[in-house]
Amino acid sequence: MDDGKNKNLFEEIFRYIRKLSGYNLTLSPKEINILEEAIKKGISVDAIKKLIKEEIKKYPPEKRKKFTLLFLEEKIKNIKRTKQKTSKSISSSKLKNVPKELKKIAEENITINHIWKNLTEEEKKEIIKTAIEKMKKGFILTNIDKEKVLRSIIRNIIKERYINGGNK
C-alpha cells in the first residue's frame, strides 16, 4: 500500500476514535505501528472501526480520554493464531476421501466451523443478531426453513469478516 492511502486510512480511523471518545486524542508511535500491522494483515478499516467501537464501549465516558489502541495488538495476534491453527487443523486425512473439486468447499467449511468455535459468546451473539436482521430484510419468512437460512447467513458473515478479511 502506498503512504498516501495509508495516511488517509489513519486519518479516517483517528477521526472515528475522536468521534467515539469525545476527546482530541493523539496516537503514540506504537499505536500507529499496530494500525499499520493491522492494515498489512488485511484487516479492513471497517473491521478495525468495529473493534475500536466494541473496545471503547468498555470505557466509561469520563475515562475515554485514556483510550489506546494497544488492545488491537492482541486482537491481531489472535487473528494470526486462529488462521495458523485453522490451516494446521485441516489435515489431509480429513479431506482424503473428498473429491478434488469439493476440497476447497470442505476446507472452507472446516475453517468456518473452527472460527465459530473460537469466537467469544459476545461475538457470536452479535453475528447472530446481524444475521437475523439480514434475514428479516432479505427474505419472505413464510415459506423458508429459517434455521437453514440463518445458518447460511451466519456462515457468509464469518467468511466476510474473518476469511476474506472484510474485503469485498
Brief summary of the model shown:
This protein has 168 residues and is mainly alpha-helical.
What does this structure look like?
It contains 7 helices and no strands. The chain is mainly alpha-helical. It folds into 2 domains: 1-78; 90-168, no CATH class. The longest helix is centred in the middle third of the chain and has 20 residues, at 70-89. The chain is globular and about 55 Å long. The model has no long low-confidence stretch (mean pLDDT 77).
Q: Ranges with pLDDT <50 over ≥5 residues? A: none
Query: Total number of β-strand segments?
Result: 0
Measured as a percent range, the helix fraction is 55-70%
Q: Structural class, please?
A: mainly alpha
Strand content of the residues, in percent?
A: under 5%
- Major sheet details: none
Shape: globular
Number of domains: 2
Please give the alpha-carbon distance between the first and last residues.
17 Å
Number of helices: 7
Rg on CA atoms, Å: 19 Å
Mean pLDDT across all amino acids: 77
Order of helices and strands: HHHHHHH
